[in-house]
Amino acid sequence: EDVPSQTFENKDYFCEKETFPVYESISTEEGETIRKIAIEIERPPQIEIHVWTIRKGILGHLYVEKLSKREFEGLPYFKLTTRTTLSQWKIFSEGEAQINQMCESRVCRTELEDLVKVLYLEKSEKGRC
């Protein structure tokens, strides 16, 4: 899938809110898709990784890991995909909890994709926020 290109800087702001880098890793093993979405938070300095295990479109397992930046740097396959605000990350996390309950017994491919889109910041119209 194509990811909208965005400019990444060490400190980036969107509508005067600080943004944080979001990384993603997708792998397939034994018929399961493992999708990992991570955010780098400065205080405390850590990486929060949300791990989804998807089998035949059904979210079978979801858990959250927290790593130091040093531990995260040693992990392969993660790609910087966007930057997001903490408020958007909160919306993502809350939506993830709802989808986790809703998708225990049914296919939720569309819902999962829509949830990830929450992390992408829309450029404000005419510079207004």
Automatic annotation (TrEMBL):
Source taxon at top rank: Eukaryota
Pfam families: CHRDL_1_2_C
One Gene Ontology term of the molecular function aspect: BMP binding
Domain (Chordin-like protein 1/2 C-terminal): residue spans on this chain: 10-129
Location relative to the cell: Secreted
Broad class of where this protein is predominantly found: secreted
GO cellular component assignments: extracellular space
Alphabetized UniProt keyword annotations: Developmental protein, Glycoprotein, Repeat, Secreted, Signal
Keyword Repeat: yes
InterPro entries linked to this entry: CHRDL1/2, CHRDL_1/2_C
GO terms, biological process: cell differentiation; negative regulation of BMP signaling pathway
Record-given protein name: CRDL1 protein
